[in-house]
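Extended Data, panel c. Modelled sequence:
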Amino acid sequence: MPLLSRLEGTIMQTTTNVSDSLQEEPHTPAPENAPTTEAPSVQQAEGTLTAAVVPLKEEVIDGEVTAILEPEHKPTPKQPPYYLIVVVTIAGCLLFTLVSFMLPLLRPSATVTILPVERTITTLDAIQVQGRSLPPLTLMQSTSVSATGHRHQNATNAYGTITFYNGLLTSQTIAAGTIFTGNDGVQIITDQAAIVPAGNPPIYGQVTVSAHAALAGEQGNIPAYDINTACCATSVVAKNTQDFTGGQAARDFLIVTRTDINTAVTSLLVLLSQSENAALQAQLQPNEQLIIPSCTPRVSSDHTPGDEAKHVSVTVSETCTGIGYDAHQVYANATQLITSQTGSTLGANYALVGDIQVTIVHATITNSHQGLAHIIVQVRGTWVYQITPPIEQHLVQLIAGKTKQQAITILLHFPGIQAASIQLARGNTSLPSDPNHIHLIVMYQTS
């Protein structure tokens, strides 16, 4: 901007100077004989005026750089021609139609899926391997659990005895059901007739019979001699020489059940088993694994089932003996046995799928000095019929050109195939005659 302002100022100043010069010089007519060379001077002056107005050059000052700014022109974006969009769309439609028509020709005309026969073999075998008995181990655990049984008890009568004393010289009989009232107002009823023998002064005749409180409850538990009164007949006295007991009010209470004890025993056995297993594992040598053939538990409790209690304490002690054996030898021997049996039973066309599972059923030490263990194992494995590439080619040639049902029948009669399915392209009912257009898929099950 300073450069443009300076340029404008220079142009205006130059124009003003030229105008003043033209006004100050008077127009002098030229002499007749004067040369005509002065005419160009006027033209030059006029030309100078014109140059000062239009194309005037800026005075260049030493050491100053002049920059000429040109207006910025933004390019106008070009629009794609519409005929290209039409051409591309038509080409895409033609390509899609061509691919849709050619794709069925490139794919197989028939897809055949077969499922080979699978056989799972389980056997019991006896194996003799290196083993040794571990020292017996006894551990003990105790716990207390809440009683969960409930019982209701009705109110009960108190029972005791009444003694009759006879002062007559003849015997007397007191009927059963005779009622006596004690000092505290509790009524007592005799349960049986009392035949009181005759007295022989100074000794009284006496007899004792059972009796009970008339009302159920704790109030019937009268103390001794609460009844001490003459009654019933001449010279007869009745007394309760002992306390009446057993009178109780109705109530609900807890009792110990068999389930309470069994629950406590089960929880203790789990803890003992973990502890014993860890203790026996600590006695193993390298490359040995543990078998716990037998454990003997002993159970004790401070209450038996049916006892009234809020809690029951249970103690379990268990003694276990273990066997350490060479696990790698057991697995190798078991694998060899079942592989040999399977080879003779199924033939060479079957192959093992997955791992062989070996489970220890029972173990005993046959010779502790030589360190031999007799182990019964359950061995389980799965074998599948192998459809090799030559067999696949043979199967494709057998079913080429056959109908779908004929092909399935042929496949199912082939040894080692338990199921088959066929998918035909474009609604065909028969397989193509060219085996190259038949795609065979062998699907193995995974157990």
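The first helix runs from residue 2 to 24. This feature is highlighted in the accompanying rendering.
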